[in-house]
């Protein structure tokens, strides 16, 4: 168990949860699994995501979907505009065709963005490379996402930054005996005691749930894949862990909702109180000095409804109490909490699309107001690009082993786009000024239009332009030849004046 006061990626969500820690995973991972479950519930505004005090017996709390707004906005800007391309796709068309076919088949960008969204909410997202050598060519390798709650890494005992093993665990039911509680574990590891041998070993087996992670105590139920090394050309464990909001010393990422759970609870509590207060104003709250009504000598509840007449024997007073007259203080408090939430999470109005036209037209003003969001995204972009670069570099080994496609020294490079919308008029003015002053070439002009504005020029555009210019020049030459043949030159060899005002005096 975590000591009181210890800061972890999950230390702020645990005190406001009501879930019991699972016993089917190692003790050091139980808090993490609970946090994944609660952040998932918090994102979807599920009931009992966090404890909300009910102010009336039948009052049901309201959950304002602020967690969803925070996560969706952050995930949108994180690695925004991601593309995966060859270093020089034009000169390596065959490799580019193979890579694009792999993208299309795996729907990589769509799946990555979905995994990223969940990862921003939970703190972690995982990709896993697998291969089936018996599948048809160009269909043997698959990129799968893995639930982070199924991911259990092992680290070098002397270096917590060096991962030496990974277990991917999921519950498993034996169709022949459904009474047993079992788990399926796919285990990758290095022989870290022999660093000269960089072979990756793999085993998949079914284990009894008790102590499945403890090699000394675990009880194997049956093998699925025997213990054997992967191809020697594959030198990295094919499981890639992406971490949101990394922090030095944390082996896992931090949820975007970490640290603001109590603000969510405050907003939900305030809006729930307001709803109950408004409901009571409508229904009314009554007071009387009479006792409770009785039926056959047994006390029953009061019934206050339209069209009913209350008979109150022995009462000297019955009246409707004065209710609230304004919810303005509650609304002011909610606006303050909402503002504090945006500041704490770096969610600027610009990121939410709240912007005036003047600011939108000013690139500098737009960038300055976007700084809070950019500040929390920039280093995450760098970390994500580094992890993607490693994953795609490793994938080239898998392509070589299972598809016989050799990328050689060709790099597969992930790139990201602009965070803010591009002002096309401003970019064109800038490029036009540079081109008119002969600072840039026409090719550089086109390259910038493709990179910054999304244009897609054909490869032979320069030749097309040159051919058009030659054709226009030939037309002009033919027109000049026709004009020269209409009237012969005068005695001085000059072409006669053929204008329609040749006989008028030049008054200039």
Keywords:
508 residues; alpha+beta; three-stranded antiparallel beta sheet
Commentary on this structure:
- The chain has 508 residues and is α+β, with helices and mostly antiparallel strands.
- Helices cover 38% and strands 18% of the residues.
- The chain is built from 11 helices and 14 strands.
- The chain has helices at 27-43, 66-77, 93-106, 108-122, 261-283, 328-345, 357-361, 363-402, 424-436, 442-453, 461-486, and strands at residues 83-86, 124-131, 141-146, 151-156, 159-174, 177-189, 201-208, 220-229, 239-243, 286-288, 294-295, 298-299, 318-320, 412-415.
- The strands form 5 sheets. A 5-stranded antiparallel beta sheet has the order 4-5-6-7-8, with no helix packed on it. A 3-stranded antiparallel beta sheet has the order 3-2-9.
- β11 (294-295) and β12 (298-299) form a beta hairpin.
- α5 (261-283) runs antiparallel to α6 and α9 runs antiparallel to α10.
- The termini are far apart.
In a nutshell, what does this entry contain?
The protein has 508 residues and is α+β, with helices and mostly antiparallel strands. 38% of the residues lie in helices and 18% in strands. The protein has helices at residues 27-43, 66-77, 93-106, 108-122, 261-283, 328-345, 357-361, 363-402, 424-436, 442-453, 461-486, and strands at residues 83-86, 124-131, 141-146, 151-156, 159-174, 177-189, 201-208, 220-229, 239-243, 286-288, 294-295, 298-299, 318-320, 412-415.
